[in-house]
């Protein structure tokens, strides 16, 4: 995505009307200053242009000489600071390229229009890529008619992803609605119409529009122009999509100006007929969104402090409490599950059984076995609570750095005026550990708390093969008196490859942690590959012995990249205690280093130069543009090496898009 820089424009008081623009577009080949286009006729009437009109502009569909389609946006009404706004938005979108926005170019004096309402002259237009697909309005209409639940599920997830992108980058669209969202042919969402958009560079301006009333907070006005102004629209659209997923017939509330909600629902939320009908679905997740909407409508502020929680897919948990043993005959499989894992009065909640539709962080295909919890007495810290079990790698590839979380739940006493008769559960303890770090009970009792936690949180880099089990351990201290339940879930893991010893020197294995990158926001590292990685020991005259890692990083992006930052980790083998039965050696991270690719020294230079100057050279930000599929070498030099070094890993951390000016 790119857009050309724009110069300051002069104010234009009058613009042509739609009919005058249509006349110009019909003769477009003779009316453009720098571009060459043909108009595209309407699919329903070949004598009519393909266009759509709004309150402030009209958009025409055109194509170039190669048949590529574009949208030309022509302005009907002058808006304050239009050029400055488009320039700020353009700069932002160039910096954060993504799939949710389309590339555009502001052409200052491009289209000549003969006009009775304005002077006969060249007027500005906005040229942008044409997004192939239907608006969300058309897509939802078709899906609800067909009761296409699978499509509605996909759109619910895609909407969460789009909203999260806006929140993560502190930007707002300003007019989120069904007509400004396009569903592409592969069911991805793309935003269009950026007239009211906010980016950080526009923080001192006011809004030039306040959006459609069917999506906006009742208190929205032109003074509210910041990164938070989409919060209400995000919630309204999320609730609408999930309600339609449960009952597509609710689309009967669509008026053409909304999805299902309208301004009158927000103005009188307690008496909304739509809300009452949605509540009959008896869906706890949707009821929670309704509660959030009610709270937001009653607030004077558009900003919603819970918006990040709202847009994320909610965690689903099996709450298997003791009384379910007597009431869950209809849920026999859950009953058997509880019976197999209960060991005392505290029950197990496996939060990884219901997997949410979220990007895979390396936790979606992990399972558990042999989970048990027990109290251990201690003279120092009263009682410990210990959770043991095995994590099972159900991925088809090997995984390492398997991070697991456990939560302890306590009962919270109710307030006297609360109507809910059920006591509430609160998280009283939370802990994350890496699988593979194990202690026996007698070791837990004799080691102090800080060293236990330090040991359990070591990043264990052992490769766990597909369908293989790896043990884990949690040790909780300072326990609450009303402890009731606990839960265990996998947080993340990384793909790893165990290379044969013959591939490398000095019997040190290489683990390429970037082989299968997780589906996370791209920092410029997801499409980097490695080759020719090797490690060797060298004798340095000044610093004595050092360990060197060399290799090439391959830019697998389609664009050129620069400032390619790479990290390497050295892992040492930790000695076992004499009475340990487990024969698996534990790995601990002993060294970590980050360097920029392209900074290279030969061995004889490494042997002569002191440590500080080597580090200073390797960590310089190398701005060389690496073209797509091109290789660039890298180098790591480690000093003060552990004598029991056994493995090392290499992975890409980040890179930036660049343009090779010399080309």
TrEMBL record:
<keyword id="KW-0472">Membrane</keyword>
<feature type="transmembrane region" description="Helical">
    <location>
        <begin position="322"/>
        <end position="343"/>
    </location>
</feature>
<dbReference type="GO" id="GO:0004674">
    <property type="term" value="F:protein serine/threonine kinase activity"/>
</dbReference>
<feature type="domain" description="Protein kinase">
    <location>
        <begin position="45"/>
        <end position="318"/>
    </location>
</feature>
<keyword id="KW-0808">Transferase</keyword>
<keyword id="KW-1133">Transmembrane helix</keyword>
<dbReference type="InterPro" id="IPR011009">
    <property type="entry name" value="Kinase-like_dom_sf"/>
</dbReference>
<keyword id="KW-0812">Transmembrane</keyword>
<dbReference type="InterPro" id="IPR008271">
    <property type="entry name" value="Ser/Thr_kinase_AS"/>
</dbReference>
<protein>
    <submittedName>
        <fullName>Serine/threonine protein kinase</fullName>
    </submittedName>
</protein>
<keyword id="KW-0418">Kinase</keyword>
<keyword id="KW-0723">Serine/threonine-protein kinase</keyword>
<dbReference type="InterPro" id="IPR000719">
    <property type="entry name" value="Prot_kinase_dom"/>
</dbReference>
<dbReference type="Pfam" id="PF00069">
    <property type="entry name" value="Pkinase"/>
</dbReference>
<dbReference type="GO" id="GO:0005524">
    <property type="term" value="F:ATP binding"/>
</dbReference>
């Amino acid at each position: 995505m790119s857009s050309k820089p724009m110069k300051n424009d002069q104010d234009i008081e009058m613009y042509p009307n739609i009919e005058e623009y249509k006349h110009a577009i019909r003769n477009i080949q003779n009316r453009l200053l720098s571009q060459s286009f043909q108009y595209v006729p309407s699919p329903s009437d070949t004598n009519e242009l393909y266009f759509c009109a709004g309150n402030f502009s009209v958009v025409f569909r055109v194509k170039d000489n190669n048949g590529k389609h574009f949208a030309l946006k022509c302005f009907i009404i002058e808006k304050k600071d239009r050029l400055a706004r488009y320039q700020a938005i353009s700069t932002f979108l160039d910096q954060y390229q993504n799939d949710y926005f389309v590339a555009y170019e502001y052409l200052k004096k491009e289209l000549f229009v003969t006009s009775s309402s304005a002077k006969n002259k060249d007027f500005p237009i906005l040229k942008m890529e044409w997004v192939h697909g239907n608006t969300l309005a058309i897509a939802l209409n078709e899906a609800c008619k067909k009761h296409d639940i699978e499509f509605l599920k996909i759109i619910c997830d895609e909407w969460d992803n789009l909203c999260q992108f806006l929140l993560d980058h502190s930007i707002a669209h300003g007019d989120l609605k069904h007509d400004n969202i396009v569903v592409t042919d592969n069911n991805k969402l793309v935003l269009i119409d950026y007239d009211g958009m906010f980016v950080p560079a526009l923080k001192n301006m006011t809004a030039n529009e306040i959006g459609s009333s069917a999506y906006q907070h009742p208190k929205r006005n032109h003074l509210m122009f910041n990164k938070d102004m989409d919060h209400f629209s995000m919630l309204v659209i999320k609730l609408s999509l999930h309600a339609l997923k449960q009952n597509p017939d609710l689309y009967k509330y669509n008026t053409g100006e909304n999805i299902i909600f309208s301004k009158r629902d927000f103005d009188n939320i307690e008496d909304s007929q739509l809300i009452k009908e949605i509540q009959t679905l008896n869906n706890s997740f949707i009821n929670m969104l309704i509660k959030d909407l009610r709270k937001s409508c009653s607030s004077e502020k558009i900003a919603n402090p819970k918006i990040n929680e709202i847009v994320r897919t909610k965690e689903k948990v099996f709450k298997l409490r003791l009384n379910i043993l007597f009431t869950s005959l209809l849920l026999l499989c859950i009953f058997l599950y509880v019976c197999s894992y209960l060991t005392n009065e505290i029950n197990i909640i496996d939060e990884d059984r219901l997997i949410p539709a979220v990007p895979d962080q390396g936790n979606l295909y992990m399972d558990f076995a042999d989970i048990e919890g027990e109290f251990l007495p201690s003279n120092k810290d009263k009682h410990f609570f210990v959770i043991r079990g095995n994590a099972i790698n159900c991925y088809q590839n090997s995984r390492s750095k398997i991070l697991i979380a456990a939560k302890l739940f306590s009962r919270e006493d109710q307030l006297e005026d609360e109507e809910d008769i059920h006591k509430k559960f609160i998280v009283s303890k939370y802990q994350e550990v890496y699988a593979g770090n194990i202690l026996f009970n007698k070791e837990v009792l004799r080691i102090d708390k800080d060293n236990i936690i330090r040991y359990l949180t070591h990043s264990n880099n052992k490769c766990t093969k597909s369908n293989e089990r790896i043990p884990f351990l949690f040790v909780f201290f300072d326990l609450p008196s009303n402890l009731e339940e606990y839960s265990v879930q996998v947080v993340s893991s990384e793909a790893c490859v165990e290379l044969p010893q013959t591939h490398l020197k000095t019997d040190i294995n290489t683990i390429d942690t970037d082989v299968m990158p997780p589906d996370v926001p791209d920092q410029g590292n997801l499409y980097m590959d490695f080759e020719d990685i090797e490690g060797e020991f060298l004798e340095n005259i000044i610093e004595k012995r050092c360990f060197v890692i060399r290799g090439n990083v391959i830019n697998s992006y389609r664009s050129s990249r620069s400032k390619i930052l790479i990290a390497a980790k050295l892992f040492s083998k930790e000695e076992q205690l004499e009475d340990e039965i487990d024969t698996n050696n534990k790995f601990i991270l002993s060294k970590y280093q980050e360097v920029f690719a392209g900074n290279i020294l030969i061995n004889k230079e490494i042997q002569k130069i002191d440590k500080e100057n080597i580090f200073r050279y390797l960590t310089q930000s190398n701005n060389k543009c690496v073209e797509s599929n091109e290789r660039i070498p890298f180098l790591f030099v480690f000093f003060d090496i552990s004598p029991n070094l056994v493995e090392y890993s290499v992975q890409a951390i980040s890179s930036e898009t660049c343009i090779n000016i010399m080309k």
